[in-house]
């Protein structure tokens, strides 16, 4: 069992249970807003993205860079790539241009 299959299992067992909550900006009064996904929603959206990656030629075993700030989309993309079977290299967008270039040079990703 891996984390991607565990998500599918949870989506079957507890589809309406909250799986993830992430900050999503502020409302008009300046209070922080949050977005959430249930296990079923996260599983469905990550399946959709995983199929898109496969249809675009992404293959298991490839090393791909994920350059996305923490968000619901980050979590969904991560699970999609787990489902495809790629190695994910997470890069913090706030680390600065030179550090990003150095990481990319060291990692030598496939995409």
- What name does the CATH topology carry? Rossmann fold
Strand order of the largest sheet: 1-2
Computed CA radius of gyration, to the nearest angstrom: 16 Å
Q: Characterize the main sheet.
A: 2 strands, antiparallel
Element-level helix/strand string: HEEHEHEH
Low-confidence stretches: none
Q: Count the domains.
A: 1
Instruction: Decide which structural class fits the backbone.
Output: alpha+beta
Mean model confidence by pLDDT = 92
Shape: flat
Number of strands: 4
Count of alpha and pi helical runs: 4
CATH architecture: 3-Layer(aba) Sandwich
Q: What does it look like?
A:
- There is one protein chain.
- By secondary structure, this protein is α+β, with helices and mostly antiparallel strands.
- It contains four helices and four strands; from the N terminus they run H-E-E-H-E-H-E-H.
- The strands form two sheets. The protein has a two-stranded antiparallel ribbon. A two-stranded parallel ribbon has the order 3-4.
- A hairpin with a 5-residue loop joins strand 1 and strand 2.
- The radius of gyration is 16 Å and the shape is flat.
- The two termini are 26 Å apart.
- The relative contact order is 0.17.
Write out key terms for the chains shown.
two-stranded antiparallel sheet, 4 helices, 22% strand, Rossmann fold, two-stranded parallel sheet, alpha+beta
């Amino acid at each position: 069992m891996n984390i991607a299959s565990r998500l599918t299992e949870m989506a079957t067992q507890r589809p309406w249970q909250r799986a993830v909550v992430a900050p999503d900006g502020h409302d008009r009064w300046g209070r922080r807003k949050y977005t959430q996904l249930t296990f079923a929603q996260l599983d469905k959206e990550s399946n959709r993205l995983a199929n898109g990656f496969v249809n675009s030629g992404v293959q298991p075993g490839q090393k791909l860079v994920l350059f996305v700030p923490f968000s619901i989309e980050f979590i969904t993309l991560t699970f999609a790539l787990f489902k495809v079977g790629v190695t994910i290299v997470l890069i913090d967008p706030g680390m600065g241009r030179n550090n990003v270039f150095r990481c990319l040079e060291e990692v030598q990703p496939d995409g």
